[in-house]
TrEMBL record:
One annotated Gene Ontology cellular component of this protein: nucleus
Domain of life: Eukaryota
SUPFAM superfamilies: SET domain (SSF82199)
PROSITE patterns reported for this sequence: SET
The name this protein goes by in its record: SET domain-containing protein
Phylogenetic placement of the source organism: Eukaryota, Fungi, Dikarya, Ascomycota, Pezizomycotina
InterPro entries xref list: SET_dom (IPR001214), SET_dom_sf (IPR046341), SETD3_SETD6_MTase (IPR050600)
Amino acid sequence: MKQVALPLEDLHVWAHFNDVQLFQASIEPHIMREDGNDKGGGLVAKSEHGPGEPLVAVPSELVLSKERVEQYAKADQDLKELIEAAAALSQNPRTAVLLFLIYQMTINIPSSQGRALGFNNPFAGYVKLLPHEILLPTFYTAEERKLLIGTSLAEALDQKLISLEREFDNLKAATAKIPWCQEIWWSECADCLTLEDWKLADAMYRSRALELPRNAGVGMVPVIDMANHASDRRYNARFEVDEGSGSILLVVRDDRIVQQGEEITIMYGCGGACEMIFSYGFLEEHASSAREMFLSLSIPADDPLRMAKIRLAQEAPGVRIYVDDSDQVRWESSFVWWACVNEEDGLDFRVEQTIDGDAELKALWKDKALVTDTLQSILLQDRLRDIFVLRAVVTVQERIEAQGSQLAESEDHYISTVRSDQVRESVYGPIGKLRGLEMKLLTRAYETLEREKAGLLESKVVGDYLAQGQADTESPAGTPDDFS
């Protein structure tokens, strides 16, 4: 759709007319980084502020969340029709807001492009003031995506693009028969709704949504969402909910003083380097660690119970590698345990009929019903615990080795072939840094798992198990045990 945009300089006018209070703080369209590059708009203190002092106050009715969308739908028949038709999307907090954002974009289309929709509200103006070019990976070119090969971001981006396309297709199918949607969105005109518009709404939400304190949920908070990110040691402000009015307040951290002319910053989250680029499009200037990675895992193709495991496993099919507060590399995965046990260990499946006559797949552990999310705890209490842990460690280590090899090989096969004139420097710099940080984390993780494996191989349980397996192999009547 044809997007209507207003300069960021107009945000202070929008804030004034919508009762947003700025306490000796200003909205600046250009903030310079330490390296001299412009990082866009931000908030700056106009005077000194002490610990706990307010910087910005935003009325509760300006918090854009699923609940706010539902309230607007009660007074807007066109929006209500959209929300009800796309019920599968509107029930999710994120996609409910995305529906509302593209609805506001549609309202902003000049009247000559389609019939008038809805009514004037603060968010129609707010959307005009949001950037319509957002440097997130979902907008990378084909050449820029080559830079991601071997990183954890590559697979995350692939899955995200598939998800966005599926959501857009569902939106089109759900609203195809709504007259105004057919007329404005799906009429094959030059300004009809496209996947790029849905991706833009997603980028707006993903890069600005805040997880509010005191169970206030997740939402976009105008003006406060202008605050830029700083690391956990550098940010100087936090947000809270006012108990009386419900307003969202941006206040100075309890251990900080914000000087006149200083930029007001918050910490966006505690995710790793991949998450920072995925959701916000940049890396911290002082980032020295990838902090965490999520790598996919799969059940081996030759596992006879593979399909049953995939069907019943409720956990994300992967492993999280991370650095803890003591700078030690750790791993966690609930899914890996499904790959570590089979029928000879005590895992089994059976199909039962429900009272409605439907077939239902059930998991068993040593002939007892197994609640699928308890498999890990059961294995860790089993007498063969060290065997199962060793299998898990080997599985994770092999996955880390494969990821590291792909990352290293892609340096020669892909990165060196990318033409500098086809890749934006704002993409090349962060991705190059991400590649280095992830290789460092993968190397540390591999070494950590090697030490874990060595310790487990000294276990008496493991020694006895391997000895028994060797004896069975050498016996004419025995069959080799598949330890892998």
